[in-house]
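Protocol step 6 of 9: fold each sequence in the batch and record its structure tokens directly after the sequence line. For illustration, a two-sequence batch is reproduced in full.

Sequence one:
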Amino acid sequence: MSKKIERLSPEKGKVTNKDKAQIVHELRRKYKVNELVKMAGIPRSTYYYYTKSQSKLDKYATIRPVMKQIFTDNKGRYGYRRVTAKLKKQGMVINHKTVMRLMKESNLHCFVRIKKYNSYRGDVGKVAPNLLNREFQAAKPNEKWVTDITEFHLYGQKIYLSPILDLYNGEIISYDISNHPRFSQVMVMLDRAFKKIPDNTGS
């Protein structure tokens, strides 16, 4: 009896089911699988589960290094969709969900750097009077609103956020997001805010 078969014996110390399944797999061409799993003391399902998982690993063995190289060449900025597109260009047809899973298994996480935002100043025109005079507290809802247009740099594009904040409780009354800072953006934001005001509320 070969040494591999002897290793199947429980008397040889602690051998995991995975080890036993691997030995059965190596000896399957010389001996019947039914006899080997019986000798190993594992169900046939355990053996087939192991072989199936091994075949999955082998299935993507050629794709994994190419996937990692694409990710590295692009300095970690490519997510699974762009990596999938690059793989297809190289003749490797694979589902994007599979690429997502393989990237997670390989610990390849896309990091997109979001730049710090700054308040958009735009062209300085007529300066409005300072009605608040730094009194940023309100006695009732809708008494004092403040707003500002904030510029974000996100995924290589500029995004402009225009919100209205109620100083009474810090609630965002309304907001609008646009690719360009326009006066119409402010009007849309105000229209949405006014529609939320109950009758006889505010000052």
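Sequence two, same batch, same settings:
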Amino acid sequence: MDAATQLPTVGMIGAGQLARMTHQAAIALGQTLKVLAGDPAESAAVVSPATVLGDYRDVEDLRGFAKGCTVVTFDHEHVPQEALRALIAEGVDVQPRPEALLYAQDKHAMRTRMAELGLPQPRWAPVDSISDVEAFGLPCVLKAATGGYDGKGVWMIEAPGDAQAVLASGIRLIAEERMPLQRELAIQVARSPRGETAAYPVVETVQTGG
């Protein structure tokens, strides 16, 4: 609880552009947003007076950051599962829970869960060899199961030789069929721990120059 405002203190692990936009929204609500930044020059760190410097992968840094926070969340999906589970075990309210975060962290888990739910998605399969890629069919897209974002960890494969260096890296991979891109739509739905939901308007994202 913030002693000055008597409102809950929200702690956000990460200080990127999403944290900065969240900070702007928090100002309008009179809400305190505390951010954990790896560098004082990060986007949210330069505008938020409640910035703590630390490493999101370090459990001790996370423990120190969580002190005084009513709830802890994050602005990216790379926070280790074991670190968040350690905080929860110590009584920290982490939202969303690691069980939900998993599907943003691991594309294999996400695709598997979508298949279980019967949701439409591209044809996909885990691959770890040239023969797996050839059996899947070319051309295709190889994706890192974890650690990828904004085009990082994505490879367009036209021929078996294109996949050799990627496979040799030891990265856990999935292959997906290459889909013709007509448009990209984004839908955001939020749910509170009490089960309240809010759906936001569908938007079309337009990429220019890559």
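Proceed to step 7 once all outputs are recorded. Observation for sequence two: The CA atoms of residues 13 and 44 lie 11 Å apart.
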